[in-house]
Request: fold
Amino acid sequence: MSNPASSSASSKCKSAENTDDDRTLAEDDQIDQNSGSMDHRFERVTVTLEKVVGKKFGLGIVSVHQRILVCKVENDSLVSGVLRYGDQIMEINKKEVLNKIDCKKRLMSCLKDKGHVEILLMRPKTPDAVKMIEQEIQLSQQPSSTVQSKQ
Reply:
């Protein structure tokens, strides 16, 4: 004999599982759509930076949400024409960049030791991506208003 309470409970669990599965699929679809939209807004670019005696380095970077973003490119510098405002530095010589300090040290030491450095970038390529990155850089450079000194 089957127990009506247990079959009812199992069908309730089963329908709850189906709902969870459906929701997960919908969430997965949304994630796929979002990641797809990010893909067309940014491009992966590999550039080579060459050492030129007498030229200043001319690069400013900032850390935003654990990403290293170019926030300054000086005219007539090593990086002008190679890096752009808003570029995200992903790798230096095929090794992931860990933080702002790591990035600066590795760029400088590679240029000094080898005379060149290969940089993998994530570069914004649509106007909305450029605007989003500009806003993130600007916000990161504002003094924090949440920290207040107590006297």
User: Anything to note?
Assistant: The helical segments are 4-41, 100-114, 127-140. Residues 44-140 form a domain with the Pdz3 Domain fold (CATH 2.30.42.10). Residues 4-37, 147-151 have pLDDT under 50 and may be disordered.
